[in-house]
Amino acid sequence: MRLEERMVSFRLVAPAQSLRARVLEAVLRERRERRRWRWTWAVAVVVVAVAIPVNLSIKMPDIVADQSRTSLEAWPGELREYVRSPIIVAAGSPRRTPRTLEELR
Amino acid sequence: MEAWDLEALFDAWAPRLLAYMMTMTRDRSKAEDALQNLFVKLVAVKAEPQHLDVYLFRAARNEALRISRRRPERSLADLEVLVGHGGSLGALELADAIDQLPSDQQDVVLLHVFEGITFRETAEVLGIPPDTAASRFRYALERLRGLLEP
Asked: Which overall architecture, per CATH, does domain B82-150 show?
């Protein structure tokens, strides 16, 4: 029998059964991870394609202007007058009307 | 959407791939890691390749080389991956003779003789022209004859 003929009756084999659970567990983990990534990307695409344009298209109210107006209106009349007065009036003293510029000169 | 049945693929191919990876790494634990990495990477492959054996051996070779370059200090006979009977020729004797071949000739012998794939497929796995694979085999055979048929 020639050497080639004798050689082909040999095979390369190593027992791998002990590895089966470990390898297939790693495969399952990878599949789960890939599925999770797919969902993450899907959500990201939805946000970019839908949520952001919709959000930008909604007309935003003028929050700053509204806030300043409401806060001014919320001041009591007494306080408004006090703030406008150039003279600081002590508590309990008779109220004085603000002087005009001519009077001050 | 995974097209492969990796469990069936493992049952059918793992013993051969592990043995081949062991000849590359000369270390069982490294070959086991390489085999696990290979199967994890197969998850990303959508459909079964046309030439499955060529694809798997090429992927196995790349993964084994990535994990560990060949370590010639550990002999092929120590790995006990070569099984069979060739008349008076024993597995240990044959493994020792193959160990004395240059690594490029060993690659061709391991794939063409023991894995039973053609020269063209062997060349594809190794990334060399088919004629080169054939001539490496011829040189390897001459050398083996000298060692095993004095």
From this structure: Orthogonal Bundle (1.10)
